[in-house]
């Protein structure tokens, strides 16, 4: 039997996705001493309920909400706290709702479906407020909310593929705290056209001669339609023909990443022009991207985020210099350029820089795309000295922009717009900016991933002294 080929199917085993879905309330410990009745005092940042034992030890309870009384079972004991899950809700919160997904409790993709959408969003506002307060930062009022639908919003999904010891093929997302997969036939947070492909994809995987050669599948919806990208570990001609037949039958574009160490992208059907659209400056921009590029999963909330950024930074004087750091394919650079700003956009990889420059050309916009190491504060210091920008836009990955913020503290600019996908690194960087004389003028939570504890946020920092220095320099000139 060749490497990666299917083994004969035997009786069903206990691999996740073959047995009945396990509820989040199901016990994970056989100890008779780990169940207790707890009153939930609040929510941790990750969405777990927080309670205390009679001895005062903290307990983080999955699936519990503030104000509830629950019977919980501890599945992990630590020195300073325990981790538990709900066995039974004895007194439910008014915020508790029926999860919209049949796989909730087994799939690890959405962890807050038992909490109302309004409650989820209040929780995210509270998390941002608390993390900033820990750094001594207390912006006025409540953070604005940038929201859209709670279901049918996700335009991109990466699906795991596994073949069990009996030859059974599984397709879906991982269970919570595990590498096991939950088989999905539908997913309510995916765009309907993506969710509709889950069951047919599993059927196709079942027909392959070498399903073990498939690492994962990625679905993306764009202006060009739906694209399916296969992570294929080894070449298999017969299975390639099956994938092409699937793509033709379903009307999807098909590509693969082939190889283990340095996979190369190859389109198995004619390569589409992958694009998404953003309104800005009274026109609609088209931004191209490629498989593997960063792309906000929620198109509607991303549009609201960009619109809010443009509103916060208005008015921009014609030709005003703006630095867009961690610029990606131009999600902020192009809309700002459409308003007349002079944009220098910086990215780390040459392929992304070329994509950004190509998007600017395709939209008839003047954006200077550069490659630079933004993990080195010297790069930012040099850019600030050269460009003297009125505004710096930051949209870093989860690690944040520590080196950039250190440079901005040393060489302040009038305004910094910081878009973050990790509130902890945002709070750290915000504290560094505050030490450099910046204050938070506006702040917002963007509910980019409804039903999850993931928190996207945006802060506008202003530096009054930097603005006065620029005005003085302008008068002197």
- Helix share bin: 25-40%
The description of the largest β-sheet is: 8 strands, mixed
Superfamily (CATH H level) name of the largest domain? Vaccinia Virus protein VP39
In terms of quaternary structure, what is this? single chain
Number of helices: 11
The proportion of strand residues reads 25-35%
Total E-strand runs:
23
Average predicted local confidence, pLDDT: 90
What would you report as the Rg, rounded to the nearest angstrom? 25 Å
What does this structure look like?
- The chain has 477 residues and is of the alpha/beta class.
- The protein has 3 domains: 1-21 and 102-111 and 152-222 and 225-272, OB fold (Dihydrolipoamide Acetyltransferase, E2P), CATH 2.40.50.1070; 28-95, OB fold (Dihydrolipoamide Acetyltransferase, E2P); 275-476, Vaccinia Virus protein VP39 (Rossmann fold), CATH 3.40.50.
- It is 26% helix and 29% strand.
- It is built from 11 helices and 23 strands.
- It has helices at residues 117-134, 192-195, 198-207, 237-250, 299-313, 333-338, 350-362, 377-387, 402-410, 423-435, 464-476; strands at 35-39, 42-43, 49-52, 58-62, 69-77, 81-91, 144-146, 156-163, 169-174, 181-183, 214-222, 225-232, 253-258, 264-267, 275-280, 283-288, 321-325, 342-347, 367-371, 391-394, 415-420, 439-446, 456-462.
- The strands form 4 sheets. The chain has an 8-stranded mixed beta sheet, with helices on both faces. The protein has a 7-stranded mixed beta sheet with strand order 10-9-8-11-12-13-14. A 6-stranded mixed beta sheet has the order 1-5-6-4-3-2, with no helix packed on it.
- A hairpin with a 5-residue loop joins strand 3 and strand 4.
- Helix 8 packs across helix 9 and helix 9 packs parallel to helix 10.
